[in-house]
Amino acid sequence: MRLRSCAVTLAVMLLPWTVNAQASNPVATAFRADEKDVGKNLVDAADLMPAEKFGFKPTPAQMSWGDIMVHLAGGNDVFCSAIGGVPAPQRTKLVGTDDKAKLVARLRETFQFCDQAIAKLDDSKLAEQVPSFGGTKASRAAMILEATGDWEDHYSQLAIYLRLNGLLPPTAKKPPA
Asked: Cα–chain-centroid distance for residue 173?
């Protein structure tokens, strides 16, 4: 009982600091939360697809599941490096036909990099120009919006691919009671 009382007291004491930190950096705080949530959903979706289906694509013009994994992992390094203002790790090149274990591990690895890269992100530098795709520059705020949109776009794509293969996407599953 005493431990619980101490924990509650500590939580109450830290609440103003936590609320103030979130209030002073609402964009960075929201982005970090989104990266965690969407990253989990994307990795969970990657885990869910059977290895023999990593070549699946609904039509010849679309990317295969494996190609999406490679695309997401590469994008994560570009987005999070630019947004966090840190260099992207040098990684060995993967292709969409690599095995599931390598592709899922890489995706997980890039979200771990994102966690580290954006850990100290704050709203004071949202207007700064940072490297973007194709050698261009964009504001840090624009890159945050682009990253969020890209993750959501690809999650919806993966959800459709899963459903076309008779699998329920992670966000469609009921949470455990």
From this structure: 19
